[in-house]
Design goal:
globular; mainly alpha; 21 helices
Amino acid sequence: MAQERKKKAGVLPPDGGWGWMIVAGCFVVTVCTRAVTRCISIFFVEFQMHFARDYSGTAWIHSLVDCMTMLCAPLGSLIGNHLSCRVAVILGGFLASIGLVLSSFATSLEYLYLTLGVLTGLGFALCYTPAIAMVGVYFCERKSLAYGIAMSGSGIGTFILAPVVQMLIEHYSWRGALLILGGLVSNLCVCGALLRPITLKEEEACPLPVDSECAYSSKPQAAISTAEKRQLVTNRQQRNSKQRCLQSMQEYHFLLMPDFLVLAGSFLFLASGCSLPFVYLVPYALDVGVSHHHAAFLMSILGVVDIVGNITFGWLTDRRFLKKYRSICYMVAVGMEGLCCFLIPLLRTFALLVPFSVLYGYFDGAYVALIPVVTSDVVGTTYLSSALGVVYFLHAIPYLVSPPIGGWLVDTTGTYTATFFLSGFALISSALLLCTVTVIRHCQRNIQSKKTTLEQCDAQQADFYATKNRDLLIINTATS
């Protein structure tokens, strides 16, 4: 009974304890989703040789995995909200594992589009958003650090898995490598089991309270008398239908927030530019005369420094003097990435491309760790799962179309300059949009505060003269 009463009352975000197990689970989720997705590109040559297809046809596999992961992110949020985050991640892990295992029996590229692209991508989508949202439920004061550690799984996983996958292909062929990856990804089900439910106090989860398993209830349950219960039995279906409708409306109420709409526009520009350097850095390096070994090493540098950016930027933005300026830190990270892309056409040797990989990798890790934090700051913990679903959904179409557009620019111009300029322009636009709105809001607040100050001064002056006139009147009356 005491435990049940405690659950109903809710608790503060623990900022530690079992929360670190949630971070560990989310870390493995990012390894098994984002890192595995990046490593799919290692299979490209094998797929091309086996199925005798061109690069553009094979490249659609990677685009489909990325697109499905982001496109179905709201579905992961929906299952996490209505069933539980635990159920969503376990189900996603099962689907992703089945997709990779079935891909090992592929007989055509179209078969891989369905199994590796659609089915595995859908499984990743069901895991990714609920796991990330769960970290935000368990952490408040150290939220940026927790997200930095959790999201670093992408960089660490890429650094470790890339050579391992290449070794697996050499020893067991691409079919055996996909089969082993299917077994690795099945560990997502274990990560789902770690996502223990927590009920936050209503003021912490404002405006909606959080119930079990990371699901968000539409309103607190009020005490109902016995007579009312009998009456409610007759119209239970109608009442449940109305509650479901109300709950769905409240879950996505944040879509009406002007701040979130601006953030969503910024994310669209961000998603249009952030993937192009990862796709075209190695081809560009080979084009300017860098060896295959050194070109591949540039990607390893990106992955390692990405980890440093995740953790250090997360730790820094949790410091008291920077916590209020997390959105500005996010803008700086995205803007610096854009500047790096504008400079890369001038970097034509391996020695010059290494600093690019370091800077781009660091700021990429920085902004990736801050996406859930900035979103949480705008919409609150209650809406975080649904909001992240929408945020990652916005990444889907740009992820799908930007690499082919970049390839078309390379084919048309004969160089990679236009492709990297497109990436830099999109990233700078993302940062400038948020910066412009922030400056406008700041000016509006200053004008409003000046008006309030003037009104207060006028009111004080009026009170002073009214009091003075009253005193003079009393004196004059007494004299007469």
